[in-house]
């Protein structure tokens, strides 16, 4: 979203005095284009800044000429072009200052209203800054080339004199060079290259962090092509500067020459080592004896890898958290001494695709055969133990055949040996993905985090897992806070500044239950994903609400008003709370036995609600057929083998080892357990069963599903 699309609808008084010699209608014409130029990063008055400002003026004029060709106000656009040329051609830096002031004023007005700028704005600013810095470097290389030619044309005596003056200047300024001499320009160029390198490394760290957040469901821009282009551009400048430094090495003196080459080589090493990364992560919950895939990419491979008689091979090894920490502290330059697990099919060739200009190694058929467990800290369980896959290779790069040992570490992995460990392993991964920091020591993560951040994480995971655009609401967060902090008397504001611990999230059992907060929440996720996605997306389920608050909401509502909430007492259950008004006017709120995913696969939630005649209006007052009509399944015209259509009114229900008969004449079930069983399988309450001949259902052996029985 562009800045202009936001501020153009704001009242003009917010921008009084902002548009003077650069009129508002011209700003409107240029709209997004104006914001996609690096006005704010042209900060000096040197030859580069003047040249960049002149180029922007020319580009603006050309843009307006294109607009004039298809614009009804052609005459006005041409007048704008004339005014721009007259006002700024002699001093294009004035145009930069004018536009910069306008954009700063617009941002200030937007910040005053919204308190923040869109994330896309910050991303665009970073891209504009890097683009201009790259232009500055290329300009600097050109300047050095010109001076280098001048040095070549000097006589030996003149060069010696200049070198003596250079050394004297260094002594007077504590080694700092000044002016436009070649050594000074080389030093400035190397400094700018180091700054650009830091920008690239930061972007790579951000990409990796976004990749990790994507494990929790965040949107992730996977495309590495722009980052690869950045790395390649900087390496090209590195080689140009290195050649220029070596070419005039005799004139620079041994000390300055060695310092420049050392700094340049440090830039190359950082770019090469950081550009080897995991493009497709292995599963973060990994079961032994299960096949998995991953891929690594070398962003500089297509540019730097030299032809080799044998293909370069990438190896994958399992490492513990301790080993990962030691590798990180050593700069990922030390070969691994011992793997902590045995991975089958763990070597793949590093290939170059000439069509896409990429260098990748894709592991398609890995399998973790076994894992060596390490000593755990305190009460840490096996599902809290983190390890990783280390990808490594040895390559020679560039015309100098420089050797490099490259390593890339995957995101943290929790290894499990049984499916029942999956839930707790997912909790460890979720916490680590959400709350780890950039450039951390592996795999350090906070033990306690702000509740607001936890809410963001739960919402992100919920929307991604269920695949819905409808996220959690403030009232849902309030209920979740009451649950995790075991405090039903606090107000929503009381939780704003609270922090939640890892123990509260997935170690401590909830009071009166047999499960943790995460185990309960993950059960809700699974149920909603499998059976309730459309109901949730249509906002038919309140879900996250306490039984006590339900009674408060429904207490004054008419008979038959109902709502849907996730079960507090069971993992992965949803229940219907509804109002029953007695003949004496008394009100009772009943909660039907929770339905599990298995129940809802037998008969959908919508059909169960349709079957229950005592349910009339979805809270607050929407008729149930209007709310759930689109979720009803059409009934078959007849039962199997010509029998009447099945209605869950008179059934033979099998539950466990018992068989319970519903008597159609009396409309009752012969045991309390049977009432619960019938309710669980069909969604029908005993009081809904009427007298008279009805269809009989018999449980299929071992399936828990109903098959037609003989007619009565």
TrEMBL record:
GO terms for molecular function: DNA-binding transcription activator activity, RNA polymerase II-specific; identical protein binding; protein phosphatase binding; RNA polymerase II cis-regulatory region sequence-specific DNA binding. SMART domains: STAT_int. One of its GO terms (cellular component) is RNA polymerase II transcription regulator complex. Residues 689-712 are annotated as: Disordered. Belongs to the transcription factor STAT family. Carries out a dual function: signal transduction and activation of transcription. Involved in IL4/interleukin-4- and IL3/interleukin-3-mediated signaling. This is Signal transducer and activator of transcription. It comes from Terrapene triunguis (Three-toed box turtle).
């Amino acid at each position: 979203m562009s800045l202009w699309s936001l501020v153009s609808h704001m009242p003009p008084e917010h921008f009084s005095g902002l548009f003077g010699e650069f009129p508002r209608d011209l700003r409107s014409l240029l709209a997004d284009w104006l914001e996609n130029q690096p006005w704010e990063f042209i900060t000096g008055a040197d030859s580069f800044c003047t040249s960049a400002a002149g180029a922007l003026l020319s580009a603006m004029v050309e843009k307006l000429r294109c607009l004039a060709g298809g614009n009804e106000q052609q005459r006005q656009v041409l007048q704008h072009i004339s005014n721009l040329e007259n006002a700024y051609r002699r001093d294009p830096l004035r145009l930069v200052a004018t536009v910069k002031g306008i954009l700063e004023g617009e941002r200030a007005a937007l910040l005053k209203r919204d308190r923040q700028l869109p994330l896309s704005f910050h991303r665009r600013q970073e891209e504009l800054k890097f683009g201009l810095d790259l232009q500055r470097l290329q300009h600097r290389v050109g300047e050095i080339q010109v001076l280098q030619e001048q040095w070549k044309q000097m006589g030996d005596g003149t060069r010696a004199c200049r070198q003596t003056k250079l050394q004297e200047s260094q002594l007077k300024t504590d080694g700092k060079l000044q002016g436009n001499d070649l050594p000074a320009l080389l030093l400035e160029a190397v400094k700018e290259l180091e700054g650009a390198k830091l920008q690239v490394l930061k972007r790579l760290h951000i990409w990796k962090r976004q990749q990790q957040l994507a494990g929790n469901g965040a949107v992730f821009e996977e495309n590495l092509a722009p980052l690869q282009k950045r790395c390649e551009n900087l390496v090209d400048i590195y080689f140009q500067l290195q050649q220029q430094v070596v070419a005039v090495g005799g004139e620079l003196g041994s000390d300055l020459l060695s310092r420049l080459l050392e700094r340049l080589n440090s830039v190359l090493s950082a770019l090469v080592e950081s550009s080897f990364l995991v493009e497709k992560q292995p599963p973060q919950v990994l079961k032994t004896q299960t096949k998995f895939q991953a891929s690594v990419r070398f962003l500089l491979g297509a540019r730097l890898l030299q032809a080799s008689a044998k293909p370069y091979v990438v190896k994958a090894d399992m490492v513990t958290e301790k080993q990962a920490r030691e590798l990180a502290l050593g700069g990922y330059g030390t070969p691994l001494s011992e793997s902590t697990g045995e991975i089958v099919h763990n070597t793949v060739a590093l290939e170059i695709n000439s069509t896409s200009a990429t260098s990748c190694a894709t592991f398609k058929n890995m399998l973790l055969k076994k894992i060596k467990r390490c000593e755990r800290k305190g009460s840490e369980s096996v599902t809290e133990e983190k390890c990783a896959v280390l990808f490594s290779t040895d390559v020679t790069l560039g015309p100098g055949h420089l050797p490099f040992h490259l390593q890339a570490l995957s995101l943290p992995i929790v290894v499990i040996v049984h499916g029942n460990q999956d839930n707790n392993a997912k909790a460890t991964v979720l916490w680590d993905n959400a709350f780890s920091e950039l450039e951390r020591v592996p795999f350090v993560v906070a033990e306690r985090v702000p509740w607001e951040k936890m809410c963001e994480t739960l919402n992100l995971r919920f929307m991604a897992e269920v695949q819905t655009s409808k996220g959690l609401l403030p009232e849902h967060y309030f209920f979740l806070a009451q649950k995790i902090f075991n405090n039903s008397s606090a107000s929503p504001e009381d939780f704003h500044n609270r922090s939640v611990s890892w123990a509260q999230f997935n170690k401590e059992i909830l009071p009166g239950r047999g499960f943790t907060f995460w185990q309960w929440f993950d059960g809700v996720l699974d149920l909603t994903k499998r059976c309730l996605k459309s109901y949730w997306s249509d906002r038919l389920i309140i879900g996250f609400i306490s039984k006590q608050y339900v009674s408060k909401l429904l207490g004054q509502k008419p008979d038959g008003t109902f709502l849907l909430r996730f079960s507090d007492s069971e993992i992965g259950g949803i229940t219907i709370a509804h109002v029953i008004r007695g003949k004496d006017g008394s009100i009772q709120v009943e909660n039907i036995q929770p339905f599990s995913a298995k129940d809802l696969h037998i008969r959908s939630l919508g059909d169960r609600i349709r079957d229950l005649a005592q349910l009339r209006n979805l809270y607050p007052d929407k008729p149930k057929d209007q709310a759930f009509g689109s979720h009803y399944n059409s009934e078959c015209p007849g039962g199997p083998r010509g029998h009447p259509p099945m209605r869950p009114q008179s059934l033979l229900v099998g539950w466990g080892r018992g068989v319970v008969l519903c008597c159609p004449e009396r409309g009752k079930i012969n045991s309390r357990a049977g009432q619960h069983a019938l309710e669980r399988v069909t969604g029908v309450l005993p009081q809904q069963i009427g007298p008279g001949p009805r269809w009989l259902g018999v449980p299929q052996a071992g399936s828990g599903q109903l098959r037609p029985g003989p007619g009565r």
